Predict the 3D structure of the following.
Amino acid sequence: MRKRDYVDDDTPEIGMAVTSEARGRGVGTALLTRCINQARTLGWKGLSLSVEDGNTAARTLYERCGFVTVGRTGNSDTMLREL
Ligand SMILES: CC(C)(COP(=O)(O)OP(=O)(O)OC[C@H]1O[C@@H](n2cnc3c(N)ncnc32)[C@H](O)[C@@H]1OP(=O)(O)O)[C@@H](O)C(=O)NCCC(=O)NCCS
């Protein structure tokens, strides 16, 4: 696995957070699904993000939405969703 936290110039990197009171109700899933669909509509070929070790809630969401680990830097994995 390559050591990288950046995929390439044609792959936007996203980050997301839901306020603590609103978590666990599908907001994160809805946001990420919308981002994926919008990126595809705009012609991007992929989306990337980073997730720290131990962030099980985020990793579960990302994997369920089709992100796969493609690199690692420090204590974070870089994940890519091909579109
Ligand atoms: C990650 C985050 C954006 C998810 O948002 P959300 O609105 O809670 O997401 P959803 O309600 O759509 O749920 C996402 C999945 O995570 C799961 N999940 C939630 N908490 C979990 C936990 N502690 N352990 C394992 N899975 C967990 C949910 O069960 C759900 O999976 P499911 O639908 O298969 O049951 C939110 O937790 C957050 O803002 N965290 C703090 C900031 C952060 O870590 N951002 C990501 C940085 S990489």
Remarks:
- Residues 16-18, 23-29, 51, 55-58, 60-61, 64 surround coenzyme A (CB under 6 Å).
